[in-house]
Amino acid sequence: MPGVAEAGKQAPLAVRMQGVSKNYHIYDNPKDRLKQAIVPRMQRLFGARPARFYRDFWALRDIALDVRHGETLGVIGRNGSGKSTLLQILCGTLTPTEGDVDVRGRVGALLELGSGFNPEFTGRENVYLNGAVLGMTREQIDARFSDILAFADIGEFVEQPVKTYSSGMYVRLAFAVIAHCDADILVIDEALSVGDVFFAQKCMRFLRKFQENGTVVFVSHDAAAVRNLCDRAIWLEHGRMRMEGDAKAVTEAYHASAYGETVRVVSAPVRDSAADAASVARLGAAAVPNPIEVFRFDPGAGFGDGTATIRSVQLLDATTREALSFVQGGEDVTLRIEAEALDALDSPILGFLFKDRLGQVLFGENTWSTYRDRAVPIDAGARLSAEFDFRMPILPAGRYSLDVAVANGTVLEHRQAQWMHDAFVLESHASGVTTGLVGLPFPGIRLQSEE
Ligand SMILES: Nc1ncnc2c1ncn2[C@@H]1O[C@H](COP(=O)(O)OP(=O)(O)OP(=O)(O)O)[C@@H](O)[C@H]1O
Fold it and tell me: Phi and psi for 304 in degrees, rounded to 5?
């Protein structure tokens, strides 16, 4: 996990909270709020004991927390457990009722939608406003403005008031600003990762790079996300710290508790398309259907020296070789990648990485080891294709994407001709996978008593 080695026990503190509590006054009806503003004052005036027209509600209670520099801390808990309250206190947008908070470094936060930006101002004006709040000078923002814009990728909308933005555009711009403000500590609420898979993957790439040196506090409902991204985690329950420790141990305990209390319902798989029905027919009677929608190859720029370019990526039925728009987890498929050489290549390699929504690589392969002793050289203008036969794993519901690349050389020493991030997207609609990053089809499971 990035950051662990540097963090160690001795890394300096980035955040320290001691005895932090947050109390809200709850009024059962609006009149009570008015009464509270007037009556106790009058009572004090006449020397009477002031009455209370509210109930106390402790959103956070006695939280002690250290986050060390370079560490990624996960915050997990159910709705209303106090996660957002904790983050807002950490960012300084909310004052604790009790306790001390010591934050060392610049905090870039992606919290509530709507915080940080003025809805009447344009995107451009908000970048300057937000950048200034984050401690950047006007010159620094000028210098980074084009990078921020490129990251957000909202085009002409940057000149429009942000009140006209969709939530996806809003998050794009907000994330772009915090990604360029030289934050020491990033505070991210994963619930905000709205938007398309390409932007989510872009954010994850940024986050993983940031983790190499920076401190991250990451909030999610999703135990798997916390386990994948974080070194350590805390579990909040009814405003109190229920558990703190290694991310794996905390998320497992959280998971076990959630499972103890609820009956898991696997949502009904999508069955509305002939293509999907055909994929079920190919697989036979799968125990738990896992319909995975296959989106079209999306040619994008990527990076590389331009000596070759990816022309198409397709997922084919392993037997009929027809291009699939739906596949079932457990089915045999062929991934076909086609590239075109723009210069002659003496030892081309084609490959892919299959990633989950957090950018975590689930598996990948390339042609090098199979063709290491018999390279397939091609001339400029010629096409080259690679096919990878594999059994599609059973994928937990969510979005997945493939990075696809063409290179020239050997696995240890090669030049990237073109590497395309998220060239190909899949979406799993339902799955029976409850543990692990992926499931595998088990053709047989036996339980029997032995005499
Ligand atoms: N301004 C407020 N006035 C009264 N109660 C509040 C206020 N803000 C939050 N709360 C309450 O404090 C508790 C903790 O809220 P918080 O938003 O921190 O939880 P959360 O864990 O982030 O939940 P979610 O996952 O739904 O975002 C909730 O019960 C919420 O209703």
Answer: 145, 175
pLDDT single digits (tens) 369-414: 888 888 899 999 999 999 999 999 999 888 899 999 999 987 778 8
Spatial separation of the C-alpha atoms in residues 308 and 384, rounded to whole Å = 10
Query: What residues does each domain of the chain span?
Result: 4-261, 274-428
Rounded distance from Cα 219 to ligand 1 centre (Å):
14
**How many angstroms does the Cα of residue 10 sit away from the middle of ligand 1?**
34
Is 274-428 assigned to CATH 2.70.50.60? Answer: yes
354-378 pLDDT, tens digit each:
998 888 889 999 998 888 888 899 9
**Token pair belonging to 109:** 């936060």
Report the C-alpha dihedral over residues 44, 46, 47, 51, rounded to 10 degrees.
Answer: -50
What is the residue-wise DSSP string for 223-292?
HHHHHHH-SEEEEEETTEEEEEEEHHHHHHHHHHHHHHHS---PPPPP---HHHHHHHHHH-S-SS--EE
Give the residues across from 51 on adjacent strands.
none
Ligand 1 centroid–CA 238 distance in Å is: 10
Instruction: Report the side by side order of strands in the sheet with 308-317.
Output: 308-317, 332-341, 383-391
**How far, in Å, is the centroid of ligand 1 from the Cα of 24?**
10
Q: Is 95 in the pocket of ligand 1 (CB under 6 A)?
A: no
The total number of residues written for the chain in this structure: 451
Say if residues 220 and 190 touch (Cβ distance below 8 Å): yes
Indicate yes or no: pTM above 0.80: no
Return d(Cα 138, Cα 135) in angstroms, integer. 10
CA-CA distances (angstroms) from residue 1 to 103, 119, 351, 406?
Answer: 23, 38, 24, 28
Q: Residue of the nearest CA to atom 5 in ligand 1? A: 24
Q: Does the interface ipTM go beyond 0.85?
A: yes
> Fold identical between 4-261 and 274-428?
no
Binding site membership of 245 for ligand 1 (Cβ less than 6 Å): no
Residue ID of nearest Cα to ligand 1 atom 11 = 59
Pick one of 3.40.50.300, 3.10.50.30, 3.40.190.150, 3.10.28.10 as the CATH number of 4-261.
Answer: 3.40.50.300
- Candidates 248, 213, 212; CA nearest to 233 is 248
Q: Confirm or reject: Cβ of 27 under 6 Å from ligand 1.
A: no
